Each structure stands twice: as C-alpha cells, then as structure tokens.
Amino acid sequence: MELNVQKINYLLKNSLESYKAVEKIIKNNNLLFSQVFQVFLQQEILEILIFLGNIQEVFQQFENINFILEQQENFKQNHFQFFLCQSYQNQSKNLTEENSFNKIKCTANGEVNIINQIYEIQKSRQKFLRGLIEIKQYNYREAIEQFTLFIEEGSYYSCQLRRKAIHHLNQLFMIEFNKQIDLKKIYLDQKACIPYDITIIIQLEYQKFFQEI
Q1: Number of structural domains in the chain
Q2: Which of 48, 66, 165, 174 has the highest Cβ tally under 10 A?
C-alpha cells in the first residue's frame, strides 16, 4: 500500500513538472493561448497540488483561476456584440438588411453558446476542486456542500467529474452520517442537465515556432 502511494506521488510530481513547463510557455506567450486552455491547465495543476497536500500553494492557485474566469466572463459578455458588429460589416449585399442581420445574429448566438457551455463547466469545476480542498482540511460538511453545488448547479456537466463527485459524496456521508445514499441513481439519471466533454487540441506547429525563437 505504501509503495503504491509513493508511486502515485512520483507520477503526480512528474505530471506537475510537465504542466509547470507548459505554464511557463503560456506566461511568456500569453496572447497565443485562449483563456479556455489556460483555465484547463491551471485546474489540472490545482488538482495535483491538492492531492500532494501543498495547501498554501493550493489557495493561491485557486484564486488565480477565479481571476482568469472573471476575465473570461467579461470576454463572454463583450464577444457577442463584437462578433455581431464585425459580421454585420461584412454582410452579403445580395441579402436584405433584416435577413442578413438575423442570419448573423443566429451565428453569433451559436458561437457565444459554445463559449457559455465551456465557461459553465470550468466554473463549476471550481466547486468540485473546492470540495477536494475541504476534504484535505477535514471540513467534511463544507466538502459535502461544495460537491452538491457542483452537481446541482448549471445545465452542462462533465461526466467524469460528476462520477468523482458522487464517489466523494458517498464516502463523506458514511464518515459524517454513517449512511449510504444511492446518489448515482439521483444524479447520473438527471434529464435536466446535458453531459459535455471538453477536448483540448494543441497545435503542434507551435513547438517548431518556439524552437526557432
């Protein structure tokens, strides 16, 4: 058992070093990377730090992510008007002004809707991570609240994270109340929410670019 823990910690530390290397590249070339990717990377780093028990660094990382998410919220609010304005200037002359505007508005709504979905999932993951932090500090009831908020809020969710949250909630209910609840039946069968997976695609040409500068 102790050997397995040591191996896990070793793998986590190696992963952390790799993520930190990518983080350094982003800090030096901030404009080349989207805020979506930056939040994804920072949340991966945060989850590793939580399991390694670096509490002081954990709270700093948590606040850094909140700051990026606030910037993303401002971008999300301004993006629709910007996209609408730019697209309207390039509208086709063959379409009437009303039809062209409605078509552009529909396209803009589609783009903003995707941004909203990703933003909602990343923002809700902060509650999941906060739940992990509370477990590390033995604040089990606060952890239950954070995992419950993570599961119940929003219209979109990550399947993998929801299963993890349910696993932690089952363990916490046993610790705090000595009882088991069938949370999988309650939360995995919800029809009101939509499962959503985020895939991060990295353009490998950037590696050549960085090698040349």
Answers
A1: 1
A2: 165
User: Is 195 strand, coil or helix?
Assistant: strand
115-170 pLDDT, tens per residue? 788 888 999 999 999 999 999 999 999 999 999 999 988 788 888 898 899 999 99
CB of 151 closer than 8 Å to CB of 190: no
20-49 burial string, b = 16+ CB within 10 Å, else e? eeebeeeeeeeeebebbebbbbbbbbbbbb
Nearest to 132 by CA among 213, 53, 202: 53
CA 56-59-61 angle, to 5 degrees, is 105
Which of 53, 64, 55 minimizes the C-alpha distance to 27? 64
Domain holding 7, by residue range, is 2-212
Place of tokens 């793998």: 11
| pTM for the structure as a whole | 0.74
Q: How many residues does the chain have?
A: 213
